[in-house]
Each structure stands twice: as structure tokens, then as C-alpha cells.
């Protein structure tokens, strides 16, 4: 088997209102809605996927918009920020673009970049960089020359940083930078390879809208996923059986620092049930939920096309 995962597959978040979420990630950030489906464990809730034109691994942000409710609080035991790569020289465009849209943003400490908060308070960071081999979605609200290239890194704030670091090293991540309160790890892939581990103290996080649900790492196929499950189980992690997510297959485990990790296969991809030029246009359900389509559609709030006010 491979000695390392090649990087991040996707990041999944908890959100509130689905229409507001759709408006922000398509109209403000310029990502493509590549799949509109439901949470397979709670079909009364959408599962929305955004990314590049085809939803390439490493570009994907996914959301469970559970509706209005008590917001979560980012803190220890969670992933606390997701960095998105934009082209070199594009930050000036993004400052103006976000200001024009009335979106709060601020400079990053210690690095040229912008911290942005989505409508649920989820922290995103735009940094200059590149994801090799990723062509941005050029049919959206942001010109292709400035468009987001995918996930650059994810920041973890575990309750037990040393134990989390051990898991990352087992996954093949290598320590690259250490400034005392933040340690940078890199995987050997060509995109979305960074993980930063915070080691400072802070209050514990609580789940809810505005927080990360889990971080997913890439693996090539079922065979390599099986190898990872065996390897992690031998290490003492409690890993789930394989779950079919239609567009990839997944195993999950909660690492010792409290953060839910997933290892997801690169395929079969989001075009398995609708053509690339129509991705995200229709509500897609797995075969085992099709008989309940009418009831499921009644339970979901309608998602309107086109921009709306970002609140």
C-alpha cells in the first residue's frame, strides 16, 4: 500500500439556512455546486457539495445545512479554519470583491492572506498559492484568473496535539514548520496537502452551524482504503466499515484529539449520475432512497437559483 495519503479530499461543515449557504459559496466565493443531495443518515437535510468544475478531490467543500438553530463554537477538539488557495496576485481582487459584497474580512496574522467568515460564522482563509493540476470553475461569479483553486490546508485544534500528530505521521504527513503554538505538516501529493496543528490552550468547541463536521483525506481506491483501515485499526483507532457515499466511498474514525477523520476514495466522481455540464442542477438520491423521493422533497426547503442577499 501507499505509505501516505496524498492530501485532503474534502472538508465537511455544519451550516444553518441552505439557501444562504448556497448564495455565499456560489455567488460570493464563486465555487460550483457540483452535487445537491441529502444527508444519507438524515434525508430530511440537504448535503451540498461545492468545488471546481467536476468536484476534484482537494477542491471540495460540503455542507449539512440543518436549518436555523443554536450556532456552534469553534474551539479545541475541532478543525477551526480552512485555507483556500487563490492565485498569486489575486488578494487585491478579493479584498475589493468581498467589500463590494458586504462580506466581513480581515488580514491574516503572519501571512499575506484574508480571513473571511461565512454567514454562519465559519472561518475561511484565502491565501496566495497554487494547487497544481486544478483548473478553477470558470462559469461562476469570480473570473477564472482570480478563482479559488481548492483547499490549501486545514487547521486542527486537538485536545491532545501529540496524539493527533502521531496519527498524521501514520497517514504519511511530515512535519515542516513549528512556531511553538502551530505546527505545519505536509502530505506528498500535488494539491491540498497542508495540515496545521494548534497546540495552544483554548475553550472546547461545540458542534453546530459554523463549525467543521469532519476532515476527509484522499486514497486511490477500495483496496488502498482497506489497507488504511487495517493499518489504523492496528494502531488502535476505531474505524468504521466502508460506507458508500455514491460519489466516493468512506471510512471514518475519531482521532485521539477529538476530530472526526475520514478517508475517502478519489472515485467514482460526481458525474456518475448526471453529466458534467449539468452537475448540481437536480436533487440526486441514492437508489435506496428513491422510493421515498416524494416525501424527502416535501421535507426539504426549496433552493432558488440566482443570487440573494448575503446576510
Automatic annotation (TrEMBL):
Pfam families: Glyoxalase. Residues 183-211 are annotated as: Disordered. GO terms for molecular function: dioxygenase activity. The keyword Oxidoreductase applies. Keywords: Dioxygenase, Oxidoreductase. Gene3D superfamilies: 2,3-Dihydroxybiphenyl 1,2-Dioxygenase, domain 1 (3.10.180.10). Signal peptide: none annotated. The keyword Nuclease does not apply. Residues 7-129, 150-266 form the VOC domain. This is Ring-cleaving dioxygenase.
Amino acid at each position: 500500500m501507499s505509505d501516505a495519503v496524498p492530501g485532503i479530499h474534502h472538508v465537511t461543515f455544519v451550516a444553518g439556512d441552505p439557501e444562504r449557504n448556497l448564495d455565499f459559496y456560489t455567488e460570493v466565493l464563486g465555487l460550483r455546486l457540483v452535487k445537491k443531495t441529502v444527508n444519507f443518515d438524515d434525508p430530511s437535510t440537504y448535503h451540498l457539495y461545492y468545488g471546481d468544475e467536476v468536484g476534484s478531490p482537494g477542491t471540495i467543500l460540503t455542507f449539512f445545512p440543518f436549518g436555523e438553530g443554536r450556532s456552534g463554537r469553534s474551539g479545541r477538539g475541532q478543525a477551526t479554519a480552512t485555507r483556500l488557495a487563490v492565485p498569486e496576485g489575486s488578494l487585491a481582487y478579493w479584498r475589493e470583491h468581498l467589500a463590494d459584497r458586504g462580506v466581513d474580512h480581515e488580514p491574516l496574522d503572519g501571512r499575506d492572506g484574508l480571513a473571511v467568515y461565512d454567514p454562519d460564522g465559519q472561518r475561511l482563509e484565502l491565501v496566495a498559492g497554487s494547487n497544481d493540476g486544478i483548473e478553477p470553475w470558470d462559469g461562476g461569479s469570480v473570473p477564472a484568473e482570480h478563482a479559488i483553486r481548492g483547499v490549501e490546508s486545514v487547521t486542527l485544534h486537538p485536545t491532545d496535539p501529540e496524539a493527533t500528530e502521531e496519527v498524521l505521521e501514520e497517514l504519511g504527513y511530515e512535519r515542516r514548520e513549528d512556531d511553538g503554538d502551530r505546527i505545519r505538516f505536509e502530505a506528498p501529493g500535488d494539491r491540498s496537502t497542508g495540515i496545521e496543528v494548534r497546540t495552544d490552550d483554548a475553550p472546547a468547541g461545540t458542534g453546530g452551524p459554523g463549525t467543521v463536521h469532519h476532515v476527509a483525506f484522499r486514497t486511490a481506491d477500495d483496496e488502498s482504503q482497506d489497507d488504511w483501515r487495517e493499518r489504523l485499526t492496528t494502531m488502535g483507532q476505531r474505524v468504521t466499515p466502508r460506507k458508500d457515499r455514491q460519489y466516493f466511498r468512506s471510512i471514518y474514525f475519531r482521532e485521539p484529539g477529538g476530530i472526526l477523520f475520514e478517508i475517502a476514495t478519489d472515485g467514482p466522481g460526481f458525474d456518475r449520475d448526471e453529466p458534467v455540464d449539468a452537475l448540481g442542477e437536480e436533487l440526486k438520491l441514492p437508489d435506496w432512497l428513491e422510493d421515498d423521493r416524494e416525501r424527502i422533497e416535501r421535507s426539504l426547503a426549496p433552493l432558488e437559483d440566482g443570487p440573494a442577499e448575503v446576510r
